[in-house]
What we know:
Elements: H1 2-20, E1 31-33, E2 81-84, E3 97-106, E4 120-131, E5 137-139, E6 144-148, E7 151-152, E8 158-164, E9 167-169, E10 174-176, E11 181-191, E12 196-205, E13 209-218, E14 241-246, E15 249-258, E16 264-272, E17 278-287, E18 290-291, E19 295-296, E20 298-301, E21 306-313, H2 315-321, E22 328-337, E23 345-346, E24 350-353, E25 369-374, E26 377-387, E27 390-399, E28 405-414, E29 417-418, E30 424-427, E31 432-440, H3 441-445, E32 458-466, E33 474-475, E34 479-481
Amino acid sequence: MKKLIALLLVILLSFSMSACSSNSNTQPNNSTPSVGISASPPTTSSDSSPSNAPSSGNNNTSSPTPTPTETPPTSQYDPVVFVTGIGGDERKETGYIRTMVTSVAYDNDGPISDSVADNEEVVEFRFLMMNISDEVIFIDKDDFSVKRDDFTLPYTSSFIFIAKDGEKVFSDIVELEPQAILNGFATIILQEGWKDINLVHSSQHPTMGESITNMLFSQDNVSGEWIPKPSEPERVTVPEGVIFEQDGVRITLRSLEADTRGRTELNVLIENDSTDPITVQVRDVSVNGIMFTSTVFSSGVTAGNKKNDSITFQSWGFERYGINEIGTIELAFRIINESNRDRSYTSEIITIQTSISERVSQPLPETRELLFERDGLTISLLGIEEARSGVDVVFFIINGTDRNITIQARDENVNGFMISGTMSTGVQPGKMSIDTLSFSDRRLGENGINSIADIESITFALRIIDEDNRNGSYNTPAIEITP
Length: 483
């Protein structure tokens, strides 16, 4: 009898190992931009979709939550870390995957938001998975399941993504090298009142055996308020048509679109019927009456040809200038003749009204103090702040004159030391501007000023240049500000 039992155990073990090495199924590729896979330290990528990857585990298999073996610093989302491994008593000591929850937040624009009812919310749950073994392992989307009260939610209520090539995919198996890190995303529909949710990863490794990772999060950790599903955002459009035509150059406005990186693009068609190659650029761009310097556009068109191109408005510019909706865009085109620069010219200001221009009201920032005022020109201080490479004095400027002006800094002084800063701001008549006088870390450090906390006072004068009549230019009196 003992021999018979032993023989049966050998057969069962052989059958189990054979099943673990079978090929796993994959789903069709669908992707949206996100974070990529990074090695440890997270600077390189490692991913593939081998046909001989180990099979998925049983998604409907629940497992007791492992005991945390490491607790990261407390954060807004109270992340939890588990180390899991081959199961049994050796789970904590011989694990080959380390998992950390990084954030939980509402995601009403997620891939399943269209099917959300009024009493439901879409939540994105982000996590990292690290291969802490010395062997290659394979992570498959099909190895994940979402559970509530030990009930597995259907795929109509949840999507699991793994990061691959900088995108979220819900298909291919990812090969994870030793010490490499995988970015994971679980987008889940939650009903009002639901609390504890488990994201379970269950897989088999040919030599290391079973791994079950149970990541628990609570709706109490979700940032934001419980709100009904929002309505679809209004699509902002611009009227199509020719907006510039001169000397054989014609520019037609096509559309206003948002790209995949959150930038806004004004799409145009450039037709060059002249006999010379040209380069088209933009000048004096403003949005909702605020000078918008974070635009990118330079398009070359050879003689007799045409080209579709886009004027790009960087997303950080909208945040900096406090622009939430685009009502009006104004700009001028600079036409550069590449055969004879003397024949280059700049167009008049062109105004483009969007489909929501009549209801857009641009809010003005709160200023700290008025620094200078004369003949309709006002310059106010918004603040002094640390920048990526130094310290910025931030101004809010209103040009209420009928003159095109440029403002530059003169005689800059920080804590009694003459330190040159950088500022040159162009403001069209009737427009506003938010711009900076910038001091570099290097120049400040040369004078013993290592942070904004070391600054006691900043003194400077401003040069107001009248671009229409240089004889009307002048300097302001010395201005002193303190942090």
